[in-house]
Specification:
By secondary structure, the protein is of the alpha/beta class. The protein is built from 8 helices and 6 strands, in the order αββαββαβαβαααα.
Length: 169
């Protein structure tokens, strides 16, 4: 997204500081985060299937908020000036996998229903749809290698099924 590039350029141009960029995946944990709720609180079809965002084939880069906090501390204390770190636990589930986990957590059989891109844009708006329809995968390898970061928290799919997310339906 172009706004992100411009903001990062401005941050990295700061002369009186040691700027470091941490680019987050989908942040989740402790029942919070707007993106996870787009899935666990998604509309249901008449048969009870959870409505996916798009066809569900797109991957989301994810990171638990506790792992993200650890990365921020490491980046602030040890990150090289001008470095960019991707905050990703390395788990890049598809929206379909996440939807199925959320549907099971709601007491269903994991049934999901794909949605057209146009329907997703109508439901979420163009700006948000543009972001959630992207297929993104990342490992966070630079943060692991340079900062010794080791994500330890459960995956988002695990959180949906066994953790802190309670579907609203």
């Amino acid at each position: 997204m172009t706004w992100r590039e411009e903001t990062e350029k401005q941050v990295l141009a700061i002369q009186r500081a040691r700027p470091v960029i941490v680019a987050c995946g989908v942040v989740y944990g402790h029942g919070g985060g707007g993106m996870p709720h787009l899935i666990c609180d998604a509309p249901r079809t008449a048969s009870g299937a959870l409505t996916l965002i798009g066809d569900g084939s797109q991957h989301w880069t994810t990171v638990h908020v506790d792992d993200l906090a650890d990365l921020y501390v490491r980046a602030l204390l040890s990150g090289r000036a001008g470095a960019r770190y991707i905050a990703s636990n390395g788990d890049n589930p598809t929206v379909r996998e996440l939807g199925e986990a959320a549907a099971r957590a709601a007491g269903g059989d994991g049934a999901v229903q794909a949605e057209s891109e146009a329907a997703t844009r109508a439901r979420l708006g163009d700006l948000l749809a543009e972001a959630v329809l992207l297929d993104e995968q990342a490992s966070g390898e630079r943060a692991r290698t340079e900062l010794g970061w080791r994500p330890t928290q459960p995956t988002l799919a695990h959180e949906f099924e066994h953790g802190s997310y309670v579907p609203s339906r």
